[in-house]
## 1
Amino acid sequence: MKKVLSKCFMLLLSVKKFLSLIFLVFFLLPAAQAALRVEITKGADGAIPIAVVPFELLGNAGNTLNVSDIVTVDLQRSGKFSPIEKNKLIATPKDLEEVNYKLWRIAGVDHLVIGKLNVIKPNQYEVSFRLIDVFKGVQVLGFQFAANDNSLRGISHHISDLIYEKITGQKGAFDTKIAYVTTERKQGVQPSYKLQVADTDGYNSQTVLNSTQPVMSPSWSPDGSKLAYVSFEKRKAEIYIQNLYSQQREKVSAFKGINGAPVWSPDGKKLALTLSKKGNADIYVLTLATKKLQQITRHWGIDTEPSWTPDGSEIVFTSSRTGKPQIYRVALRGGSPKRVTFEGRYNASPEISSDGRTLIFVQGEGNIFKIASMDLQTGFVQTLTDGPLDESPSFSPNGSMIIYASTDKFKGVLAAVSTDGRFKQKLVLSEGDVREPTWGPFRK
Amino acid sequence: MKLTKIVSALMLAGLLSACAPDNVKDADTAADNDQQSQSTDGAQTGGIDGAGTEGGMALSGATVSYEKSAINDANNVLAEKVIYFDFDSDQISADYQELIAHHGKYLAANSDMSVRLEGHADERGSREYNVALAHRRAQSVRRLVLFQGVNAEQVSIISYGEEKPVALGHDDESWRLNRRVELVYEAR
């Protein structure tokens, strides 16, 4: 596991019209660490002002992770907060007694975070933080954690989660993982396809599979311990399930033709997938314990990209049954599929939010492909991104953000947009093209 | 139109060669072909004309032979091993039907050879949909190959969707080159 030992943190702030903020956050890392750039491309109006005071360092801190910087960037990336720049803080209290509430009230700061990182000995830390409601003049949250080099980054994200939940009332999703695929292509060299898992800010990346043949369509088990994916390593499409802790894997589907688009059912017992074993791409459901296969769709057109409704009773999918790809839904118990999307010529890659209310998908018009959402009660469709080649949308487990694959000067990058479309960011990793992000579940 | 002539010549050649290998070659076609191979250098397209999806296609040789070794002959009609498609389409344009028929006849004549049809899509649209689309493209080619009396076991299919582009640009020309089915021969 790579650790970030040192970093340079630089904030360039420019205040634009309508109070939207554009932050460029650069992390300059040691050579061994993949460079990463988080670029907030569209700030949200009405973000909550918060001050995260740099945590007090006790003991010989050396190059220890900067917890308060991680928390600041997390809150910033959520789009719901506008943390005050470090060099614009009016005071840097270390303890509750040092907080001058009146001063912070005048500065218009609603919430204040203070904390300490105590280095007991190398690789043994104690982290504590307090969240203070400036207007009430009280501490509303306070925790202390034991940490080591391996856990400190995760604990920093956990602190962000606690702060986020206390203030917004919604569970935070910073201490979760994303899976994605990277590709490196160089002239004259075999391409390299990697399935990776990383923190939601792109750090702590771990390679799950490294192959010279394509790897596709990662899907998280609901408990976050396994990934299902498609690998072409044997020069044919096969679906594997790999345990992320033991790294052991099992081949679960290797029929003739397509074995694609695996997606775990909400209860973790089944896998929806696309097979062409009867000649044509149809949706099937595989019960993992018994290996029983149930065919869900039967049509001469393309049926693929299944996604489960939260109760596991229905599957939404992409179908070309009317000529161009559109999104349909069908009950597992049977019945004919019902068309869901009608606007636009190309609608594909659907996913339903965990509350069942919102459908997100890729919408194409000419050469421009954007992420769009549909309110499933009203049918109202909203375009969330600008394209031109956006794909693979995936909800954060709390439903507040959507991560997707985008391009930055034609390089494949990860991007995120708030579910209401008001806040956007890009996550640019140095290692090749990045695609097919999928957000893991809450940590159990 | 010149291209139509070439295609007619090939069709004729195909008919003539049903009994015995026939060498049909005319100067115009050869000259045409030289230009083609220059314009597609480095793109690994096997010399198919840039206007392929709009209905024009030139083949890199008028020699028609179904001898077993012909598959490795750069001047044989079988040297063309890539079929191109329109966006979101698995339809084989009329110009490619003859080329696929040549491949079918070759496989029918050489039952110890097999071909893997590798389907591909351009980067636009969603990835798994593109796998299914590219699979259908390969199936379209397979259907026409089998039409020539080829044993079904000689033809296999794999779809890579958009995962293995040959052209790495993000423009119409790159997309055109990536929407393809490649015929990969193997001795059985």
## 2
Amino acid sequence: MGRPVAIIGSAQTNHGRRFDVTYPELVKEAVDAVFENTGISPDDIEGVVSGTMPSMMEGVALTHFYFADVLRSVGKPILKTETCGSTGISLAFTGYYWIASGMADLVLVVGSEKMNEGDSQATMTTVVDPFYQRYFISGAPGVFSMQCQEWSVKIGIPEEKVRAAATRLSIDHHNDAFDNPHAHIKKRLTEEEVNTARIITYPVRLWDVCPNSDGACAMIFASEKMAQKLGKKVAWVKGVGYSGEEYWFGDSEKAIWQCAIDASRQAYDMAGIKNPRKDLDVAEVYNPFTFQELLYYECFGFCNFGEACDLTLKGTFSREGELPCDPSGGTLCTNPIGATGLNRVAEAALQVTGQAGAHQIPGAKLSLAHAMGGVDQFNGVMILGSDK
Amino acid sequence: MNRVGIVDVAMTPGVETKDYFLDQVFRVSKEVLDKAGLRREDVSTIVSASSDVFHGGVSCANSYYWDAGAAFLKNGSRQDGESLFAFIYAVMRILTGHHDTALVIGVCKGSENPDDDMLTHFFTDPFYQRQVGLNETVAAALQKREYMDRYGITDEQCAGVVVKNLENALRNPYAHVKKKVSVDDVLTSDVVMDPLKAMECAPKSEGMIAMLLAKEDLAKKLTDKPVWFKGYGSSMDKFYLGDRDLLDGQLGNAAQKAYDTAGIKDPKKEIDVAELCEPYAFQELLWCEDLGFCDRGEGGRLLDSGATARDGEIPVNPSGGVLASNPYVTRGLYRLAEGFLQIRGQAGERQLDRKVHTALAHSTHGFAGQCHAVAIIGS
């Protein structure tokens, strides 16, 4: 399908409360770094893809205007991709399709967010409609708490076991983040600290939730011809899958979550993956909430429904386990929303090119990157490999 | 390269309605599929265009209309602010071979959000431009003043664009503004932002539009008269107005890319109809120069010669253009739809007398044309 497409390099900024830079300066940091990392000149770029969260979060509408200069996009075609929380992975897809279509050989893709200059929870409350849902779905935690409850009841997992597995993920990921130079929250946590942390929306507690991060991620996609010319180790795009479902949260089935299942199966089919737990070497699952990561293991076929908690407690998905998930610390530790999905792709690319440093999974050849968005409504999955 | 065909299009008129947003999105999506004899299940991918700031208080606009726009459990994406971006992204998706059909949807319900000047004001950066009240009309006023000073473009010539386009709009059932006006009417209308008069500025309109694309063999099966994608170009300019020459922007660059892919050497001869995005009347004259229809500074004389009239050498905006109907985000896709209907000979009363083989659709968004996109389609 289409022409082979490679990711030839990426750059993530440091994340956190970046009050040391303006928003365009933050974007510039990632863009300058990706040109430096790859040795590519901005003049050689044939197209630029930009994306953020909606204008209410940015304080500026249609941010591609504002970033035009720092994106080095002047005189070039641009696409502005936005799909809410899944923006990052949708940006990567835009870069992929642009190259695969034959319309360009070298495309720059940039996602960014300056969460600490906006109000993310107020913004996310406006994603739901003003008449029916807005009164009871406040921000992101409300939606994800309901999903967690639906999942544990429907699949029939005792609440204590869900809590124990979520706690394990929280401790592991906040620990993993120490090995990721770009991660925002790095913390050694005890079981007791996680289990007794203040409740955000039951059953979600403080350490089950991602932070508000400022950050940007830039990535360069290339055709096979261009990748060969550069002669560097690249990550090849092996599979892409995306699916979205109904807007009305109450109409939707979120435990056996069809759009998550479909997105992963589209990507697996394209990449020839039959048994994801065995075939994949590492997965960067979008985990803004610990509970959701568990649910994704099941929807993505890493295990059967009902098995995620037991396997997590056994260490199947930890750094040394059978299928390491989020060795970067994931979205749980670093969440600049418009960039987050692209960070997942960048991490997955670093893993299959052996460039992940202290959090490298030894010998990783096939990786999965994922992001989610909308009113718990969109899922996108990209598979990357070290071989074409 | 495999070709991509436009199979059909469905759109709403630009006048304000009390219709429910999601009903409107559903109706155009259903209508275009019905025309092609397809069911929702047959569509491979959906790419929409919308913009949160033009979206009546709902953020992440495409979450809201995802299922109304035929995308339930489908692979799709969305472009922010410019509907020709959604068109070209859908074309790309088909060219990869991943998808054999693509539904392109543009949504903009003008009646449910504030004035465009208020919304485009939020394109400004919060530190320097916002305090001085910059918006798209202010930027256009600066651009018009410079155009008059440097090339001697007159108010009468700008008014001539309004007279021509609104006259054309009388034949267009989708137009928002329908009235016969004279040069005098335009010149004596209120000053909005000197030197711009009220009637030189586009209205704020509704516009829900759906266009079905298919790969070559399927397009031929789905319709007797597919219209083919020929070329595309887009180009971005610098953000700060002071860093730019407002009369030498990026449209020439965007057009050249589109002409190169479409193999067009002499645009004035080879293009049979041009649908341009002219939210301010003088911009049609300036864009004609950038597109190579005349030399720099000659836009006014091109209009005076009658070349851009319905029966002229290079008819520009026989639909009435954006001055007659301005759904901000979707106006580019409306331009393309008009070109499509002209090529198919289905433009009704506004159908040109000449045979239309090749059409150009242009769109712009941002201050004084910060970003331009040009698409060429043909029989």
## 3
Amino acid sequence: MSLSLSFCLYVTAALFAIGVYGVLSRQNLIVILMSLELMLNAVNLALVAFGRAFLPSAPPDANGPQIFVIIVLAVAAAEAAVGLSILLAVYRKWRTTNVGQIDMLKG
Amino acid sequence: MDAFVFYISGIISVAAAGLVVTRRNPVYSAIYLVLVFVMISLQFLVLRAPFLAVVQVLIYAGAIMVLFLFVIMLLNLTPEELKETVPRSRKYLAGGLSFVLFLLLVTAIRKSPTVRGAPNLVEPIPATEGTPALATVGEVTAIGESLFTTHALAFELTSVLILVAILGAIYLTKKRRPDAPGGITSPTGLETQEVLPETPGDVVVTGAEESRS
């Protein structure tokens, strides 16, 4: 049984598109942040798949793609931390996590 | 066998991702998101990234999702607060737009000669005499060596980013007195009720610290 790069990228594209749908169609800030995590994961998977596919033709540093994924992971952790603390601050002020009701530039 | 694992986990991850964005209760979304992360970790294993597979479970399913679940439990939202008022037309628009994006990506993947010329991903890597490092790619030693030599600058910048994120998270979740200098005063007076404990800052620090390992 063989595994083509195309199939990996189809999975990646599907995960990313589902993440975009979540960001566009939901109003709950928690679920929107989860959709962002989903999109970051899709990109990670694509990076690893490309790294694996072109491994024999890789430059001396064959671990580059996976290092990239580790750094994306750290950025995702930072984004989740800051996003959730913004969520807490917003909830403290307006008692809601619904982005449809948070429509003022200055509280 | 490897390819079979990838096919099954790929299908499960896409299905679970669909459930993540459609559940009304964010607790169910979080649980399905953990399933997505575990499936992606299996795919990393098939794609010769064992270290990343472990890190994926540790950081995402462990640290980040616990952070999400902690915030969900902390807010303790009622069904009325979880109710969303998105019009059906906007949902169809969002679905159409993301489907168009998916079709665009699929078309790009199908047309790309680079992707079409890629080798089978589960066959063993041909032994080439010039590059002995290919055999150990993705293992902890190789990743660590690469991270602390070639990519040391990026690593250090990442640690600065995480430090800034910790400080930002602590600042944002800190209790403020209305009369303190620089404190935000609420015109409606709603801000005086403080039911949230100060623990989120600590949890944030834990989650961000672990991602550096």
## 4
Amino acid sequence: MFSHLLLLSIAAPLLAAAVISAGLSVRVAKIVAALGFVIPALIALHVWYHFPAGVGADYAFIQAYNTGLQDLGIRLTLGLNGIALPLFVLAGLVGLAAGLYAIQSGAERLKTYLALLLVMQGGLMGVFASVDIFFFYFFHELALIPTFIMVGIWGGKDRSYAAMKMTIYLTVGAMLSLLGLIAIYYKSGAENFDLITLRATLLEGGIKAGTQNHIFGLLMFGFGILVSLWPLHTWAPLGYGAAPSSAAMLHAGVLKKFGLYGLVQIAVPLLPLGAAHWATPLAWLAVAGNLVVIGFVTIAQRDLKQMVGYSSVMHMGYAFLGVATLSAVGAGGVVLMMVAHGFSVALLFLLSTSIYHRTQTFDLTEMGGLAQKTPVLAAFFVTATMAGIGLPGLANFWGELTIFVAAWAFSKTLTVLAISGVVISAIYGLRAAAKVFFGQHTEALTKVLAEKPATDLRWSEKVPALILIAALFFIGFWPKSLSVPLNAALEVVYPAKGPIITIVGQK
Amino acid sequence: MSPELIKAAADNRWVTISPEIALGCLALFLLVLEIFLPKKKHALIPTLAITGQIGLLLGLVLNFQAPYLGTESFNGLLRHTEESQFMRVFFLLSSVLVSILGVVALAKQKMPRIEFFHIVMVVSAAMMLLAQSNHFVLLFVALETVTVGFYILVSYFRTSPLSLEAGLKYLISGALSSAMLLFGIVLLYGVAGNPTLPGSSAESMNFNALRVFLEANPENFLASVGIVFVLAGVAFKIGAVPFQIWIPDVYQGAPTPVTAFLAVASKAAGFSVLLILTQRVFGSYYYLTVPVLSAMAIATILFGNLAALTQHNVKRLIGLSGVSHAGYLLIAVIAANSQPLAVGAVYFYLFAYLLASFAVFGVMTHVAGPNDADQDLDHYTGLAKSHPFLGAVLAIGLGSLAGIPPLAGFMGKLFIFIAAFKAGLYTLLAVAIVGVIVSIYYYFGWIKAAYFETWSAPVLEGETDTRPARTPVSLTAGVTLASLAVATIVLGFYQGSFGEWLLSK
């Protein structure tokens, strides 16, 4: 039973989705859905607590299943190493929060909504539990498809256009990454698609430098589209602006991390020469594009949800910068940053929707003074904003700090520019908090509140938010819980002094 | 009879074609029943046709590893292999599904019913023979049986001018393709029968003899011309550019179940013949077949996808998207020259295509009104809300056709891409990827119509709603559509021994 835990974490939400679509009453469907979200979260906590010390870059909880493609070298191999563990935990917890928030949302056609969200959750658990790079891609797509449908059906403004644009951008990105992944497999000469074999084969002799450049380029832009690397980001604010809250939470919080995780876990370690070739352009795109340009664009937003969407694009700049440093420290920073950002952006999307339910608008200029009526909501929102800025004591601090440390060794100019990003995020974050919660009610808001007085957060909204806040504080005060296994893995995958380039020579 | 004749007759081993014979007899039996059963009980006949075919299908699947596999029968006319067994199952399954759709579609028309099932079964039997052919005479006869059957089926809705027009178009283009095929066969027969050339044979219509001749004369001009003409004849059947011109009009005019039959079974028949020819017979002329097929594949993928982008009639849309699927399959046929995996990829792709296409056509049959040729994207507005079941089946079918994981169609495309990658066909691979991305747009547009668009033009006073009422889903059709959808999902996750069998090719 315990040896199949990871499989169970994927199967439980998928089974719950199947049961719900078979036709149940809404009340029973809610219970089944809750089970489907709770089981993976419990499994995530379980493997976190029991993650064995001293596995290094090896995989714990590993288990392989044959799905009939063994002759192609494809097997469903599930396992976690120190790099995958933090993201697996993130997927479990954000999934639970998004699920609980969806259950209480009272959305139209709730059963379909929950079933799609459960499929997404199953895919997310699979992405980070997969050792086989084929299934890593496969589960990503499994999680991605429901996103499009959810945006299209339950989305807000411009949903049809947003869904179409997201589909096309993300399909292009996914196709490029798939090509890159297949290319790694064939050019490495490995016998199968699992990362352990790939890494072992490449340690004996890497891929030729020219080929590495091509493959890394494919992966960088493929994953780049998925993670909204500037200037390929335009789907993100539009999509998140339109997406229903739980879908935005899961996509921006967890699914988007697929691309960065692919870069940290697969692309940089396996293609060190290609990574070195692309590092400088990647870092400049990240800092000048994502951090600075998108940072200013974020400041200019008037729509709260669009602002959160743009801010998530902006924060990806830190992560890309960390990847581009090609160092264990940078990669560690990226993983911590991904986890922290996952929790904080999910929290922001959740709270934005809760704010919308009270103000009936996302327009920042039409709100104000909400804190008088909803002190808890205000406190939560300020916490989330602080986390986004990178205040010590919250998880994001550790990720950003580590990335800056790694970036200093990489390029001082870029580091200075990147640190100015903290100021930018402070400007839009605090300004949003001030406009929503402090000052006087605007005329428009007074009218809305007269019709339907604002109540503070209900428990059904508080619980999912508290899960996320607890995670942010826990990691903020005790980053060791994630960084120890993470570091053990990174030290092997990214040896000090020039990651792997010295070890993996040319063939 | 003399003992030699008796021995020769025994050598024919009729048992090898017992499924085809049984199917033919069942088809004839339907006509007999129509005469003898009272009119009130005629509704029984389609049920009998479907259950009879399912019985035959089960028998064939249970006897899949028949003892005669790997041998030839009828004096070398037929050759039985695992692949041909697979195609037999494939055609019989399509025949069952077409019959089930036929029941739904014919109910909306005032048409004779029984002949429809009769012709579908005869055509299927001919396709099953075609997949086992080892001789140009049998290949041509079987192919003509299929084509003549389709002439009738395409113009079956004889009160619809579009259906009649489609039949005429199919007749003319089909005659042209048969002529090209025959011309190629005659050239090959003539040149291979030339006693002054090495490896010549009096039996040069036989694939084994022809292969020996072609291997002995690798650069014969007349043989090259013959091969190109034969390939052109087959390209008509699979709808590859530049022989795709008949597709949109014929697909639109033909009754929906027949469109499905054309799109799936007729195309698959073309590919099974193409694989036999390029793999076994023309193997030594790969320097000729590869460039010809590559050019065709590139043009087919680009044309199919770009032309489908602008379609509003769903039958034309799916016809043109089917053209692009033929292009992807052609890549696998080319890759099969060096990668045995590609052969398995073709069969897997065809099977995934069958499941997804029949799911989509099944939904189309239910959405279509009495005017079968008029099926517009607008008719799908709000389908997912009013008919969640049909909406879900449609989304799964279209998703699989678009190649979205975790559906079977994605695995099919993945196998083809891997085979192409291994074979070093990078240009073709790049074109295919572009094609897939373009195709997402129109497949998604269809899903969008069914799922996201809730507004439709209101019906003004004094006007009648032009959108046809949707047919309620009967139990049989519902079970069929649900199984197609479930199979599409399951085959995407778990290929099991089916995948192992195909990949071991």
